[in-house]
Structures are given as structure tokens and as C-alpha cells.
Amino acid sequence: MQIIQKIKDIIEPVIDSYNAFLVDIEIRGSQSGKIVEIFIDNDEGITTDLCAKISREISPMIDTASILQQRYYLVVSSPGIERPIKYSRQYPKNIGREFLVKYNTEKGVDRVQGILSAVSSGEITIRTKEGSERKVIFSEIIEARVIASL
């Protein structure tokens, strides 16, 4: 994953300058051509215009650094709801949405599904269908996903 770290080091200052943050980098494809996916987020929501601006700025930086030795296609986008939430900063804008959270407890791994009702500096609160509230500390979260509603 040395390539991903090099890309991250180059592009993170640019992403930060747009009041956004890097969520993930994925590289897939074959030796004849790669797809480099850059997932970004911010506190207000990512627009296609913002993705295009960042893409135009970071593409020549990646080219100049000669990190990838083959052709590649660059994609800059929001993580979308299908990707797990990785950072505490991503939760507040999702208050009111349904979540599935897998987390560690003293007894092992537990899960809770419900509406994200609150976010504090150290934890989230999920309100279940039954009306109870479950508080989950950020450091105990294994995976948290927004559940897409139909």
C-alpha cells in the first residue's frame, strides 16, 4: 500500500484546502490500466462541482510525482451511503438517518439498528424501533453504515 500512502501525502493538502477531508483511496484494475478512486467528504455534503475542482487540481500532481507507471483513470467522489462511515466527523450530517452499527462490548461483538439521534464528542446515540436508545462509543465501533431507505 505504499502507492496509496504516496498519493495520500500529495493530495491531502489540496482536499483540506477545500474544507473537505480524505475518506479513502482505492486502486483497482490491471497492469494495462488502473482506476484510482479518491473518496472525499465534508461537513455540508459533497457536490459534483467540488469533486471536479479537486480532480483537476490533483491529477497533474499525481502525474508529476510518477507514482503510477501505467495509464490510470482518476475518479473523485463522495463515499456514498454504501460505504461504511470511517470518521467521527461524518456522523453529524447523518443525524435522522437509519444506521446499522457493529461494535465491541465486554461480552463480544454486538449490533444495533435504528435512527442516529445524537452525536457527541465521544459517542453516537441510536434510537431503535422499540424506542430505546443505545449509546456507542466511537472507539468501540467496528463498522457503521447508513441503511438506504427505499
Topology:
Elements: H1 2-17, E1 21-30, E2 33-41, H2 48-65, E3 72-77, E4 98-105, E5 108-119, E6 123-127, E7 133-137, E8 141-146
Parallel strand pairs: 2-3
Antiparallel strand pairs: 1-2, 4-5, 4-8, 5-6, 6-7
Helix pairs in contact: 1-2
Structure characterization notes:
This protein is an alpha+beta fold. The chain folds into two domains: 76 residues, GMP Synthetase, Chain A, domain 3, CATH 3.30.300; 59 residues, SH3 type barrels (Roll). The protein is 23% helix and 41% strand. It is built from two helices and eight strands, in the order H-E-E-H-E-E-E-E-E-E. Strands 7-6-5-4-8 form a five-stranded antiparallel β-sheet, with no helix packed on it. Strands 1-2-3 form a three-stranded mixed β-sheet. Helix 1 packs across helix 2. The termini are far apart.
TL;DR of this structure?
This protein is an alpha+beta fold. It has two helices and eight strands.
Helical content (DSSP H or I, runs of 4+)? 10-25%
Query: How many separate structural domains?
Result: 2
Tally of contiguous helical segments? 2
Structural class per helix/strand content?
A: alpha+beta
- Beta-strand content estimate: 35-45%
* CATH arch. level architecture of the largest domain: 2-Layer Sandwich
Rg from C-alpha positions? 18 Å
Poorly predicted runs: none
Globally, the shape reads elongated
The CATH topology of the largest domain comes to: GMP Synthetase, Chain A, domain 3
Arrangement of strands in the largest sheet: 7-6-5-4-8
CATH superfamily of the largest domain: RimP-like superfamily, N-terminal
- How confident overall, as mean pLDDT? 92
User: Tally of extended strands?
Assistant: 8
Euclidean distance between termini CA atoms? 37 Å
Order of helices and strands: HEEHEEEEEE
